[in-house]
Amino acid sequence: MTKQIDNWIIYDGECPFCSRYVKLIRLEQTIGNIRLIDARKNPPELNLLKEKNLDINSGMAIFFNGQLYFGADCINRLALLSSPIGLVNKLNYYIFKTPLISRILYPVLRIGRNIVIHLLGKGFIK
What we know:
This protein is of the alpha+beta class. It has one domain. 48% of the residues lie in helices and 13% in strands. Strand 3 and strand 4 form a beta hairpin.
């Protein structure tokens, strides 16, 4: 019997951009089961990031087929894995399919997330 690999995405559930993004990219249609994990609920997966000195406030992460991708690498991997159906997914793919472009644009997205979190009075994840 083959053991199924546990794939998941961990993100800030209080960030309206992050929450909508992980739902809009429709990964279930391309890779099957994937758990969407709200980092604000202090899940055990958050400890994996901490052990690797990765701060969830600096980026979301995907654990896919035994490999952890964080920040710009995560957004690049999500673009490559997401469904080609729908305008959002097509834009996501064409914008973030290249690792270099992902590394350039991801800090801008993170700044936007931090501003929104501050304006909403949510504070950073501990």
